[in-house]
Amino acid sequence: MFERFTEEARRVVVLAQTEAREAREPFIDATHLLLGIAMVGGPGGQALHAAGVDPSRLRTAVREVGDPSSALDADALAALGIDLGKVQAAAEAAFGSGALADRARQGRRRPGGHLPFTDHAKKALSLSLRAAIRRGDGEIDTRHVLLGVLGAEEKRSSAVLDHLDVDLTDLRRRLDAPDAA
């Protein structure tokens, strides 16, 4: 499949890995692919920019939204009678602001080498091939990768785009239009 990727689409994957590594994530997920698309440009990046999404705003939104599964973790702890807010406040009082977040990032740090893709990121890349085939395009470019990310419906990337007020239906329509370059 990767042999059909344009140079821009390949750069998306490389930049996604860089973004994940800089965020000290143990994996590459769909939000990292979004960041790569926004940075590389091409048809997918242009569509994101037209929707008001640039790399800086996207990176900020990723941090602000965080990981949706963390809300589930807080709910699970609350069911056990543990107030995550109080635990965090106590940790910050003892060790300084952001102590738990810093420790979590350190614990997730991976040694050098390639980071694995999450299942949703793998699905997004697979769907990018399907998008190219459906459109009759011979190569997979950033438009197809973005269509794949949107099709994968990963919670974190969907929450980030929602946070940025991106109209996903309109974005898909513009990307998939027969006359889209």
TrEMBL record:
This is ATP-dependent Clp protease ATP-binding subunit ClpA. The keyword Transmembrane does not apply. GO terms for biological process: proteolysis. It comes from Petropleomorpha daqingensis. It comes from the Bacteria. It holds the Pfam family Clp_N. GO terms for molecular function: ATP binding; peptidase activity. InterPro entries: Clp_N_dom_sf (IPR036628), Clp_R_N (IPR004176), CLPT1/2 (IPR044217). Residues 2-181 form the Clp R domain. Coiled coil: none annotated. Keywords: ATP-binding, Hydrolase, Nucleotide-binding, Protease, Repeat.
